[in-house]
Amino acid sequence: MTEFTSYAPGTPSWIDLVTTDPAGAKAFYAGLFGWEATDVPSDRGGYTMFLLKGKPVAGAQGMGDDLAVGGIPPHWVTYITVDDVDQAAARIAVAGGIVTQKPLDVMDFGRMAVAVDPTGASFALWEAGAHFGSAFANEPGSFTWNELQTNDADRAAAFYSAVLGWAAESAEMPSGITYTSFMIGDRPVAGMMTIQSDWGPVPPNWGIYLAVDDCDQAVATAVELGGTEEVPAQDVPDVGRFALVKDPQGARFYVMAGM
């Protein structure tokens, strides 16, 4: 199933881009994924919905002065659905995280909060109202995976278990790196891996994977549109082929084929 009308609590359900150049981002992602950009009213300032087949799959907003002054670069945000944002935010504080944006209503779309986990990775919570999340997932032009990259996997696993009820199941990859799947029951909902020393100065973060038909072609198109290939396309046995790309404004994301 690739079209959705709701997301279960504990499931990543939405992604949005915080960028220094909304107009440039619209052009880049339209060219790469065929997204149609439409601006929607927002009590938080301008907001853009990216549409695939006429339905929302991602969002974008300009970077506020607070982030720019703080030196935070353009980035993608992972939103995780919860039954009650206020209760989840309370659990975050108890579990050692920091709520950086207290729960607030986004018109009639839903209720949200933004937090940083104890290892330094930022994410958002979403309590659905009129907007439940992405209409599509796991098909070209929509998100297909969300992955925590952290310097302390054990601490992160304990945190997300306490806040979202996730169970952590780890296995060694062919590369020798340990990969953790966050589970709700028998269903994987997100992943986690430890930041490796050869990656350079990568801060803890929630990375997003966007599905494409052809990973190599997607990278080539991104470069033609002004993006940068950060990690060349490579295969993950029994999973698919992926690459890390940076958009012209500096936000990083993965493209994945065959997942």
What does this protein look like?
The chain has 259 residues and is α+β, with helices and mostly antiparallel strands. The protein has a single domain (1-259), classed as 2,3-Dihydroxybiphenyl 1,2-Dioxygenase, domain 1, CATH 3.10.180. It is 19% helix and 44% strand. It has helices at 22-33, 65-69, 85-94, 153-164, 215-224, and strands spanning 12-19, 36-40, 47-52, 55-62, 75-81, 98-106, 110-116, 122-128, 143-150, 167-172, 178-184, 187-194, 205-211, 228-236, 240-246, 252-257. Strands 2-3-4-1-5-8-7-6 form an 8-stranded mixed sheet, covered by helices on one side. The longest helix is centred in the N-terminal third of the chain and has 12 residues, at 22-33. It is globular. The two termini are 13 Å apart. The model has no long low-confidence stretch (mean pLDDT 93).
Summarize the structure.
With 259 residues, this protein is of the alpha+beta class. It contains five helices and 16 strands. The strands form two sheets. It has an eight-stranded mixed β-sheet, covered by helices on one side. An eight-stranded mixed β-sheet has the order 10-11-12-9-13-16-15-14, covered by helices on one side.
Largest sheet: 8 strands, mixed
SS-derived structural category: alpha+beta
How large is the share of residues in beta strands?
A: 35-45%
Fraction of helical residues: 10-25%
Uncertain regions spanning at least 5 consecutive residues: none
Radius of gyration: 17 Å
The CATH superfamily bears the name 2,3-Dihydroxybiphenyl 1,2-Dioxygenase, domain 1
The order of strands across the largest sheet is: 2-3-4-1-5-8-7-6
CATH topology group: 2,3-Dihydroxybiphenyl 1,2-Dioxygenase, domain 1
Whole-number tally of structural domains: 1
